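User: Let's play a game. I give you a shape written as tokens, and you guess the letters that built it. Ready? Here's round one.
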């Protein structure tokens, strides 16, 4: 069994991005600029945003965080988004999810200028992705394809089973892997909470992608010998043995599944760092106007 080391791959990619940013700076006398809107004080969201800021610092990007109160109205949040849409110094920005219950994530996503939508959530980017047109790929699926590529994991003709159909992970990764492309050409089964015989379906998979949000959901008995297992889940669970009282685990029972898989991503240190890398790559494309002029 080989561990797919997302942390190491992301460090390699950051080092090469650093060079690209230096060249960009020489040519344009500025650096790429990513902004993030953070609403409220959800500790996980704060941690994700500070990670993104840290990665921007590492590669030489400028970053800005706009922190807004939990009780901000939907209209006021949209006004903030419109300011970022109009700000010529900002190449791309994200609105950290989840948002407070009184705010519609759909309205917020639609308000972001698709040319600055470096999370790749806007329907224009999503639709372009589905048709194989240039676009900002959603950051996590983008990160997963980079990992599969880096570890030379063949996807053509393979049976991929994706568990979970969210708009940000499960659905887009199943579209990407079924498309005609280098990391693609797979036969994909997208499963979800209403899927019957889930165990049996996952057992048929050459590659399993778990994005459910339930700790240890995918167990060893569901995995075919030699399967590749990509664990997207990030779940905080209690652990009395640790001074912090808790730890992060994935959606896969790593202990059992790693004994049967050929490749597996750990949590933390697998898909997570590559999601941030996907965002960095998209922001660089936005700064270079590679996709939209
Ligand atoms: P979500 O929470 O929006 O949806 C969960 C999906 O799981 C749904 O499609 C649902 O149908 C499916 N599901 C729920 N119960 C199921 C069951 N019993 N059997 C089969 N399917 C079931 O999903 P999300 O936003 O994609 O998040 C999933 C996990 O991935 C979470 O732990 C989240 O924290 C993590 N995540 C990690 C990253 C990263 O960078 N590593 C990025 C995004 C999300």
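Assistant: Ready! My guess for every position:
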């Amino acid at each position: 069994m080989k561990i797919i080391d997302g942390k190491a791959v992301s460090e390699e990619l950051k080092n090469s991005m650093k060079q690209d940013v230096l060249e960009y700076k020489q040519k344009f006398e500025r650096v790429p600029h990513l902004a993030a809107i953070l609403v409220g004080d959800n500790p996980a969201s704060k941690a994700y945003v500070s990670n993104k800021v840290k990665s921007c610092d590492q590669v030489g990007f400028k970053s800005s965080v706009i922190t807004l109160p939990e009780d901000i109205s939907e209209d006021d949040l949209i006004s903030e988004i419109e300011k970022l849409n109009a700000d010529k110094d900002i190449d791309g920005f994200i609105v950290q999810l989840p948002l407070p219950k009184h705010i519609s994530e759909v309205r917020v996503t639609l308000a972001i200028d698709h040319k600055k939508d470096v999370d790749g959530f806007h329907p224009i980017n999503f639709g372009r992705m589905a048709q194989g047109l240039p676009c900002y790929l959603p950051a996590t699926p983008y990160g997963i394809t980079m990992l599969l590529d880096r570890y030379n994991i063949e996807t053509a003709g393979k049976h991929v089973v994706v568990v979970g159909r969210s708009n940000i992970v499960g659905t887009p990764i199943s579209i990407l892997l079924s498309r005609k492309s280098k990391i693609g050409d797979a036969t994909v089964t997208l499963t979800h909470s209403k899927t019957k015989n889930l165990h049996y379906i996952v057992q048929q998979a050459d590659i399993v992608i778990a994005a459910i949000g339930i700790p240890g959901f995918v167990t060893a008995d569901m995995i075919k010998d030699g399967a590749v297992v990509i664990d997207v889940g990030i779940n905080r669970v209690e652990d009395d043995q640790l001074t912090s009282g808790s730890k992060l685990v994935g959606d896969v029972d790593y202990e059992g599944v790693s004994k049967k898989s050929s490749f597996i991503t750990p949590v933390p240190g697998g898909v997570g760092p590559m999601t941030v890398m996907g965002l960095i790559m998209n922001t660089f494309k936005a700064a270079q106007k590679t996709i939209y002029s």
